[in-house]
Amino acid sequence: MEEINGAGAAAPLHTYSEAVDWINSLIPFGIRPGLERIERMMERLGQPHRRLKFIHVAGTNGKGSTCAFLTSVLKQSGYSVGTFTSPYITKFTNRFQYNGEDIPEETLTALANRLHPLVEEIAATPLGSPTMFEVATALAILYYAEVCYPDVVVWETGLGGRMDVTNIVTPIVSIITNVGYDHTDVLGDTLEKIAFEKAGIIKPGVPVVSCVSQPEAVSMLRARALSCKATLYLAGEQFAYESRGIGEGMQTFTFKGPFRSLDIAIAMKGEHQLANAAGAMMALEVLRQYMAFILDDEDVLAGFRHTFWAGRLEEIPGSPRIVLDGAHNPEGAESLASSIPKFYQYRKLNLLMGMLSNKHHESYFKHILPIVDTLILTEPDFRKKMDAEHLRLIAESLRKKYAKEHLQIIVEHDWGKALQLLKSITRGDDLALVSGTLYLIADVRSALLRQPDSEKGW
């Protein structure tokens, strides 16, 4: 503790709860794109991020799963791995992992104490207070650079890329999973604008891997990679993947890259996970081929096979059958709607969903309504929640064109009561699905798994 605090000043945060409360107290400062405050913090801390090797992951969907694949394979191959992700499903410490384990509460408290005076100092300048995510990012860098020293850090973007706080780093390889309509209030309302923001993580001379498919988004990535003299590995061009089917709870696909081909099996469900795994594999191939990473086939295959990521087509043990999936935008809904009938057999599909108020809900419903028999609309316990009655009006407006003839729509504002209702109407041969914002998934998951110490947040 003392060593981490360093300066010997009185520590204002005495417990883990106080540390988390302080970091979360910065939430009202919002999401403020720009790197000035994180640059100032890093400068004052001696540029600790420059001592680390990062794999920087951006994209509209699949960032968390891609980070999970990378972490699992690298760890299986004998490397120590830091993993920084958001939002978290269970506990604030989830976002700072080392070899799959959360940061210890006392370490987080000590590092928060180290950052506290720095944050107050910057808050008193024209730059204004660092935000919650900026402080979390700085804390992650300190943890990896000065406490646990991983061989590599898997580094997930918070929002966008170009102006995201995580973009302070220069990685050894970058990944842009895909581009879709999400956070359009911040990133722009066209695929070109969103792709421009994501492409901002491409750095001079640093190879970049992507499964982006839309022509206008691809051209944006090409232009950025060309201007940075960065090699672009694009799915469908420099590498490819082809599904070999589903069997014994595993999806198998053939990866074909510029250096070799490999048949890979993953336990993660959903067609979109093939793209995420293929993108992760291409990034690993770059590390193996050009950066002397030792990645034996046996370890690579085992790493992919054992990858798990909470809240992504995750089946909760018990009866009735309940599947959780954090699809919360149109592209996520499209993947979910195509994957559910392929991976599960059921008589009726009962969907419980809740959303935040800044999403494309109409497009979401167009994809999901055709497969749903009963729709229960609720609200996450979160400040930006979407009113369930507003969701009902959107769903009703699309009923005639997209929904099953006998679709039943129920509004229950209290998510706990909505979950009980979902369980009560789901028979043995039915399937219950909980989807929408990860803030709802986090609460439902902790309730179903009886995790009383669950926290949640961005």
TrEMBL record:
Residues 311-437 form the Mur ligase C-terminal domain. It catalyses: (6S)-5,6,7,8-tetrahydrofolyl-(gamma-L-Glu)(n) + L-glutamate + ATP = (6S)-5,6,7,8-tetrahydrofolyl-(gamma-L-Glu)(n+1) + ADP + phosphate + H(+). Its EC number is 6.3.2.17. SUPFAM superfamilies: MurD-like peptide ligases, catalytic domain (SSF53623), MurD-like peptide ligases, peptide-binding domain (SSF53244). Keywords: ATP-binding, Ligase, Magnesium, Metal-binding, Nucleotide-binding. It comes from the Bacteria. It is an enzyme of class 6 (ligase). One of its GO terms (molecular function) is dihydrofolate synthase activity. Residues 57-283 form the Mur ligase central domain. Belongs to the folylpolyglutamate synthase family. This is tetrahydrofolate synthase. It comes from Paenibacillus forsythiae.
